[in-house]
Amino acid sequence: MWSNFFVQQDEEGRIGVAGAGQGGVLGGMKGGRGQRRTPKMSDSQEGKIKLAFFVSIIGVTLTVLGMGTEFWVELAQSKNFSGNQTCQMAHYGLWKGCIRTLWVADIDPERTSCGPAELPGESNCTYFKFFTSGENAVIFKKTTNKNLNLASAVLALLSLTMMVMGSICIGMSLSKGVAFFLKPASFCFILSGVLVLLSVLIFHQSVLALLSSDHSIPLHHELSWSVACVGSAGAILIFGGFLFLILSLPFSPWQKCLPHKNSAT
Predict the structure, then answer these.
(1) Model's pTM, two decimal places?
(2) What secondary structure does DSSP assign to 177-237, as a single string?
(3) 19-56: per-residue pLDDT in tens?
(4) How many other β-carbons are positioned within 10 Å of the β-carbon of residue 117?
(5) What gap in Å lies between CA 135 and CA 146, rounded to an integer?
(6) ω into residue 116 within 30 of 0, thus cis?
């Protein structure tokens, strides 16, 4: 009987030791898993990200400034077309167009067309009806192509959406101190810059379609300062997106794990 008792005690002891060993291994595995955390960025890296974000914000500001104005293109009659002391010109953007009446005496004598739009005069501005009733606008007997104008406006709005998403990614990256969100941010800013440039190209095609719709009134056209703002913004956004992509490369997880593997061996 005593021999059976000691054997039973011995078996229970072995089971307890085995259970403790398994618990230790599992605890070690959990502890090992708990120690694997996303590497935090350094202060210098955070400063570089903020600098790249400042560059991108400049592009966002120029985009918003250009999209909100109606100085994308200027259409000008000859300053002597009416045969009186005034002449007319038009300028418009994505959402609104204006017809301005200027005094011929205020125009540069060497300039043959009416303008520029910055001269004092009467202005009559109206919003386009592309987005409400779907009607085309008529400017100096020339009709717009609403499909091209709508496409340009939609691309511009999509670019703003991508800018907002990229800014959110950068904000999360800086607040949490991780570089995981830099690649999505770079994708958003690069795509927004491409969309902005496509919007400018399609808008230019809409201007050419407007001019070719009627030839009874000769017009001189030129792209205005808003297009320069938006075009520069597109290039800045693409540059900022590539900066975020470059900054995200040194923070690859496998590169951070290499020193730990070498130290373990």
Answers:
(1) 0.76
(2) T-STTHHHHHHHHHHHHHHHHHHHHHHHHHHHHHHHT--SS--EEEE-HHHHHHHHHHHHH
(3) 444 444 444 444 444 444 555 667 788 888 999 999 99
(4) 19
(5) 8
(6) yes
